[in-house]
Design a protein that fits this description.
This protein is α/β, with parallel strands linked by helices and about 550 residues long. It has 4 domains: about 100 residues, Nucleotidyltransferase, domain 5 (2-Layer Sandwich); about 140 residues, no CATH class; about 200 residues, Nucleotidyltransferase, domain 5 (2-Layer Sandwich); about 50 residues, no CATH class. Helix content is about 30%, strand content about 20%. It contains 15 helices and 26 strands. The protein has a 6-stranded mixed sheet, sandwiched between helices. The chain has a 5-stranded mixed sheet with strand order 19-14-13-22-23, with helices on both faces. α5 links the parallel β9 and β10. The longest helix is centred in the middle third of the chain and has 29 residues.
Length: about 550
């Protein structure tokens, strides 16, 4: 018996396979302030037995990064390299921006500390670590109530001992009533070259690990005896303990579950080449699968590099809850802001209270949400009496009211005209996303099959397929909960990587990571015939999985 749970920005989805092999599905509104509440409520509603294993896709790490509400994080690095996070690369994604804006580093300058040590590019100790020089740093960590520390020293992937010594010093410091901060070592998280990417990835992990660990502890306590595993961004699952320690690996766990689920049902239908189209309440995620899962180690989240294995997914802010508004010039926009689960679209009939959103560039503040879901309801694309499996009734009058207000701002005659405009703009945003992962990368969408899912995906699939000349649309039997289904079919996966520095022409193989992976699988009790490994070499980095 297994239960897949996908927490989204608007809904939490459940797929439970009971002891007789029967599928049970459930969907309910998320609880953004504490996602575990919706999960435990859904488990109670389904009456899931205690011996059922739970596989969970979490948005805790993603939301913490997007909303900048992670832990108070410090960085300890080699002397002279404290500003690596701020300098970054000289890439210019906005070519014509006269004053390009880079995202602020997760660690402010006052919490970026330098240790007196130095390792050479060959892995030799040039300057031994001065443990005595750490005393003022440790004192500052205590004084500023630092919750998490990222330790990233120059060339530590060749010589990790200095990072380990700093970690030991932090663990042994006298914190009095304070707890010892969470520790993230780059030699554990990402033992690869490229200082900026390694530092950024380690800092991201440190920033979200305390939140993820506390969340998983609360969830595990509520689950009781039910074993808990977590979906990773690479399409595999890991233990809750590993996810708490390396939370950065879960940054795209929900969307990854959707791609795994879509590929699973497409293979059953004998369509190997697919474009996945996951339209939820907050965003739309698209991925192109040319007969395989599209994986990359050069990801990015909230404008920061995340160099960990993940499924190559492109996300745009266009979902069922995306807000529609008119800008000061009279143009209609949809997203990326979303009404989420609280208060949700106006047709949900939830208490708006003092809700008000000032969207940058909007002609006027929004006092009631005007969303894509409201537009679909006004156009008759949703059954108001049988929404959410008949457990929720939509308020058609409320949707009509807010779309009529939008029509006045747009200068059109009716709420239906305004609603159709909202749908067209949302479709244009999603069409650009599909074009980006297909045409712009040299793939012809006419040889692929579109697999739409998520709460709103099938509503828009045919129009997008027509616009992109995609000849087939494969709608799964349970599109609204396909991400949760994908978590049930995902396999336990652990990636190990190691940069190997060798002179050109030399053939040197390092078997350490391979043996480490084998040892971990033996600890989990996997039989030899159940183990599968893959060795890959990527852009100068040897990756052994």
């Amino acid at each position: 018996m297994r239960l897949g749970v996908d927490t989204g920005g608007t809904f939490t989805d459940f797929v439970w396979v009971d002891g007789n092999g029967r599928f049970h599905i459930h969907k309910q509104l998320s609880t953004p302030h504490d996602p575990s509440q919706a999960i435990l409520s859904g488990i109670t509603w389904l009456n899931v037995p205690e011996e059922t294993a739970v596989v969970h896709g979490s948005t805790v790490a993603t939301n913490a990064l997007l909303e900048r509400r992670g832990a108070r994080t410090a960085l300890i690095t080699t002397r002279g390299f404290a500003d690596v996070l701020a300098i970054g690369r000289q890439n210019r994604p906005d070519l014509y921006a006269l004053v390009p804006q880079k995202p602020e580093p997760l660690v402010p300058q006052s919490w970026r500390f330098e240790a007196n040590e130095r390792i050479t590019a060959q892995g030799a100790v040039l300057i031994p670590l001065d443990l005595a020089s750490l005393s003022p740093i440790l004192a500052q960590l205590q004084a500023d109530n630092i919750e998490s520390v990222a330790i990233c020293l120059l060339f530590s992937f060749l010589y990790p001992q200095h990072e380990q010594q700093i970690a030991a010093a932090i663990r042994s410091m006298d914190g009095g009533s304070q707890t010892v901060p969470y520790l993230s070592l780059s030699s554990d998280i990402l033992p690869e070259y490229r200082e900026y990417e390694r530092t950024s990835t380690t800092v991201i992990n440190a920033y979200v690990a305390p939140l993820m660990s506390r969340y998983l502890s609360r969830l595990a306590e509520g689950l009781g005896k039910r074993p808990l595993t977590i979906m990773q961004s690479n399409g595999g699952v890991i233990s809750a303990a590993a996810a708490g320690a390396q939370a950065a690996r879960t940054a795209l766990s929900g969307p990854a579950g959707g791609v795994v689920g879509a590929r699973y049902v497409a293979e059953l239908a004998q369509f190997p080449d697919i474009i996945t189209f996951d339209m939820g309440g907050t965003s739309t995620d698209v991925a192109l699968c040319p007969g395989r899962l599209p994986t990359t180690a050069n990801g990015e989240i909230a404008g920061m590099p995340l160099r960990l294995p993940l499924i190559d997914i492109h996300t745009v802010g266009a979902g069922g809850g995306s807000l529609a508004y008119v800008d000061a010039g009279g143009a209609l926009h949809v997203g990326p802001q979303s009404a989420g689960a609280e208060p949700g679209p106006s047709c949900y009939g939830r208490e708006v209270g003092n809700w008000q959103l000032a969207v940058k560039g909007a002609a006027a503040n929004l006092h009631a949400p005007i969303t894509v879901t409201d537009a679909n309801l006004v156009l008759g694309r949703l059954d108001a009496a049988h929404f959410l499996g008949g457990t929720m009734t939509l308020d058609v009058a409320a949707a009509q009211t807010v779309l009529a207000e939008l029509a006045q701002q747009m200068g059109v005659a009716s709420a239906e005209e305004a609603a159709w405009g909202v749908i067209q703009v949302a479709n244009a945003n999603m069409e650009r996303a599909i074009r980006k992962i297909s045409v712009e990368r040299g793939y012809d969408p006419r040889i692929f099959t579109l697999v739409p899912f998520g709460g709103a995906g099938p509503l828009h699939a045919c129009e997008l397929a027509e616009a992109m000349q995609i000849p087939r649309v494969l709608i799964p039997a349970v599109p609204g909960v396909l991400s949760a289904l994908g978590m049930l079919v995902a396999a336990p996966t652990k990636d190990y990587s190691q940069t190997v520095m060798a002179a050109l022409g030399e053939r040197e193989e390092r078997g350490g990571k391979r043996e480490e992976g084998r040892g971990k699988r033996e600890e989990r009790g996997e039989r030899r015939e159940e183990r599968r490994g893959r060795r890959a070499i990527g852009d100068g980095v040897g990756i052994i999985a």
